[in-house]
Design brief:
The chain is an alpha+beta fold. It has helices at about 5-50, 110-115, 305-310, 335-340, 375-380, 475-480, 525-530, 570-585, 590-605; strands at about 55-60, 60-65, 70-80, 95-105, 125, 130-135, 165-180, 185-205, 205-225, 230-250, 255-260, 260-275, 280-290, 295-305, 320-335, 345-360, 385-405, 410-425, 435-440, 445-455, 460-465, 470, 485-500, 505-520, 555-560. The chain is about 20% helix and about 50% strand. The longest helix is centred in the N-terminal third of the chain and has 42 residues, at about 5-50.
């Protein structure tokens, strides 16, 4: 198509268009920069009109605006404490210094900000900030606030944050450095993230109210070094917590909070105690309020020093325990009762792959002023109401090591054990505390036992059964505690039953065995020569029970006096040893009862 405009006019039109475009561009740049300046002033004015500005100073390099979406991007932000506060707030005892390269304000009502200086927006996003937090008080207070619960008012001309709403607040990949000068502690937190959705803060006369739809918090790495705490070092990774529907209310003397659900967890927990004696580790921890459970994996408590070194801090005999647990799960725990009423209700606790080491130095004296109660009385004495229906431990291995009075060492291994404890409570004394155990001693003697502890009085009943095994398998244990060794012998069955009172115990034992041949090495064992076992030469000890096939076995009664300075385990050990002694070398009462049993058996046969 032919253009009717002369070439010269077309050329002039292009020039005019370019000039106008350039003018408009320059005007736009000028207006944009001037608008940015106005907006910067408005943001600073908004901050400086708040009482927080009495204590903190806000600086930033520049900002950019997206007019269509109402978003403001603030660059190189620096929030730091003033060298000298504009007004004194005596209750402030801590401070923070925040720097970040980028902070985004989303859906800002820009015209309102310019006209009134009031900041109204939907979201605040702070990307990769660095935060230095200094704590100098038991309860850290960082900012001035309108204390509606305080009767002594501070005169202030600036506005308070009486009401504040935000659809979202995000802190993304923050790094913290925390210095607690009061406790001489220092913490480093990396990759810290927090998201608050639908945040609402209101201050009413006498009451402060905070509500959040949900909070999600996570951090990548935490390292803490402490000087005045029971812990010297604390570190963990991958910590997270999520809380839903938070409602928090604070008055002068009351704090009320509610939430609908929360869950939390962490991994790679490392703890060093203040005395540097123990190292505690945990591979993972997870807690779910909704599911009512807590799960832990690979818990380890390991000393950094020898057993002998551990015992140095104890004046008297003390059983030092440490070890590991492969998994621990607490099921159906009532968090509401625990949090709001300080009552502990748990359905069951499951432990698996448990390894425990116990060490005691018997060269030390016994504490004659210590009187260990039975487990039921220990539980009944707990001040917090408690009810745990069941504790079950599987794949349990226990090693007990003792330094004997002659400075030699004796060791007992209990392997492949299963332990079940039911009715752990201080709410009712009607039903007993019950412990069922199934295990092997030195991998040889398989036993199961049931203990029932009375909550109403210091008393418990016990029943135990040991299955058939070769006695020679216990030689390491027998030699460690006696001047004897077994050349041969088979235990066919052992049954023990009795009742332990506060100061004594008694019961019955049936110990069936055959082909017993024991060697007693009494040379240089003066203390054994005066003991009952001194009578147990092979020429005196019966080699079998029953003595011959078809005859009545020896079933004996026994009594023991409780060592009041020792725990209930010692009652069981003394009962077993006394029952064995009575079987081997019977008292007059047991001999009389055994003769009566043989006579009755003969009478039955002769009928």
């Amino acid at each position: 198509m032919h253009d009717p405009s002369p070439p010269k006019k077309r050329h002039i039109g292009r020039i005019i268009f370019l000039i106008l475009a350039s003018i408009l561009s320059l005007a736009g740049i000028f207006l944009y920069r001037n608008f940015n300046h106005m907006l910067s002033d408005a943001l600073l004015k908004n901050f400086n009109s708040n009482i927080i500005s009495d204590v903190y100073e806000l600086k930033f390099e520049k900002l950019s605006i997206n007019f269509l979406e109402g978003n403001i991007q603030v660059l190189n932000v620096d929030l730091q404490p003033r060298e000298k506060p504009l007004q004194a707030y005596p209750y402030i005892n801590s401070s923070l210094h925040l720097t970040t390269k980028e902070m985004s304000l989303v859906n800002v009502k820009i015209i309102q900000l310019l006209r009134t200086g009031l900041l109204d927006l939907d979201k605040i996003l702070i990307n990769k900030p660095h935060i230095d937090l200094t704590i100098e008080g038991v309860h850290p207070i960082l900012f001035p606030f309108n204390d509606t619960t305080n009767t002594v008012k501070i005169e202030q001309k600036k506005r308070n944050i009486d009401s504040f709403k935000l659809s979202m607040f995000q802190l993304i990949d923050a790094n913290f450095h925390v210095n607690n000068s009061l406790k001489n502690n220092e913490f480093t937190i990396q990759n810290f993230n927090i998201t608050l959705n639908k945040l609402s803060i209101h201050q009413f006369p006498g009451k402060d109210v905070l509500a959040v739809e949900n909070v999600e918090l996570s951090l990548g790495n935490f390292i803490g070094n402490m000087q005045k705490e029971k812990l010297r070092y604390l570190g963990f990774k991958d910590f997270h917590i999520k809380v839903e529907d938070i409602d928090f209310q604070k008055t002068l003397d009351t704090m009320i909070y509610r939430f609908s659900n929360f869950d939390t967890g962490l991994s790679a927990l490392e703890i060093q105690t203040a005395d540097s004696i123990f190292h505690i580790s945990l591979s993972s921890f997870n807690l779910s309020y909704k599911d009512q459970n807590i799960r832990l994996r690979n818990i380890r408590i390991k000393p950094n020093v020898s057993d002998a070194e551990l015992q140095k801090k104890y004046q008297y005999q003390h059983a030092q325990a440490y070890g590991s647990v492969g998994s621990l799960e607490i099921q159906k725990i009532n968090f509401d009762s625990l949090i709001f009423h300080r009552k502990l209700y748990i359905d069951q606790i499951l432990l698996d792959s448990v390894s425990i080491s116990i060490y005691k130095d018997k060269l030390k004296p016994i504490n004659t002023h210590r009187f260990p109660p039975y487990p039921a009385q220990q539980i009944a004495a707990i001040k917090m109401p408690i009810k745990i229906n069941r504790v079950n431990a599987t794949h349990v291995n226990l090693t007990s090591t003792e330094r004997k009075p002659d400075s030699t060492t004796a060791k007992v291994n209990i392997n492949r054990a299963t332990l079940e404890v039911t009715n752990i409570t201080n709410l009712s004394a009607a039903s007993p505390l019950v412990i069922n155990a199934d295990a092997r001693i030195e991998g040889t003697a398989h036993f199961n036992a049931t203990l029932k502890f009375n909550y109403a009085k210091p008393q418990f009943s016990f029943k135990a059964k040991v299955s058939k095994f070769d006695l020679k398998g216990l030689n390491p244990l027998i030699k460690a505690y006696t001047p004897a060794s077994v050349h041969s012998g088979t235990v066919d069955e052992l049954n023990l039953a009795g009742v332990a009172e506060h100061t004594k115990a008694g019961g019955s034992m049936t110990f069936l065995y055959h082909d017993l041949n024991v060697d007693l090495e009494l040379q240089n064992k003066a203390k054994w020569k005066s003991s009952v076992i001194a009578f147990a030469a092979n020429s005196i000890l019966p080699s079998s029970n029953p003595a011959s096939e078809g005859t009545a076995p020896r079933t004996v009664k026994f009594t023991i006096e409780r060592d009041m300075n020792k725990a209930f385990i010692n009652v069981l050990i003394k009962s077993v040893l006394n029952g064995l002694k009575e079987t081997m070398v019977m008292s007059k009462e047991n001999k009389k009862a055994h003769k009566a049993a043989l006579k009755k058996q003969r009478q039955v046969k002769n009928k």
